[in-house]
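Q: Sequence in, structure out?
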Amino acid sequence: MKFSTLPAVGLALALGAVLAGQAHAQADEARAKKLAGGSCFLCHGAQGESTSEVFPRLAGQDAAYIAKQLAAFKNGQRKSTTMADMVAKLTPDEMAALGQYYQKMRPPTEAAKDADLASMGRYVYLHGNKFSGVPACASCHGATAQGAAHLPRLATQFSGYLFTQLKQFNKRERTNDNAVMHAVAEKMTELEMAAVAEYLSGQ
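A: Exactly. Output:
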């Protein structure tokens, strides 16, 4: 059936639903922008670019992953006194809106600072280490590390931040997203962690 043959009432209802959805999306984005401008920017930057390796870059990050992490900070699965306070009053809809808000931003790009270390990291990321049993990171995160639903965008992230997270998984100090990451990170040496982090920072 062609769109033009729909009954007038049905067409009006369909158009109304579209417009309502657009209005809701705009309201969500406006709310997310207000939330980000109120507190998030202090650590993560006005455009999600961050200015310190202590805080992750959020620009271009997968929306579902951001929402999942915010929920984990709120329910205590992921530990951070600062983030727990920040997310205490956020609703699930606001978390989802913040994810969409940051996902639309263009992530900053820069070359890895240590080319030799990044070269080693590239091999481990793409192929793993068959001698120690470290699997290829790319098997879950993809060859380009651009992120997917509920998985983080690793490309362009600060090397220092990534290294810290890998160490936390290695020591089982990070207790969310741990089904696979504990098993992987516990087999990695600090050199391998630093190398993979350095490689990803320049992707």
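Residues 64 and 149 are 6 Å apart (CA to CA).
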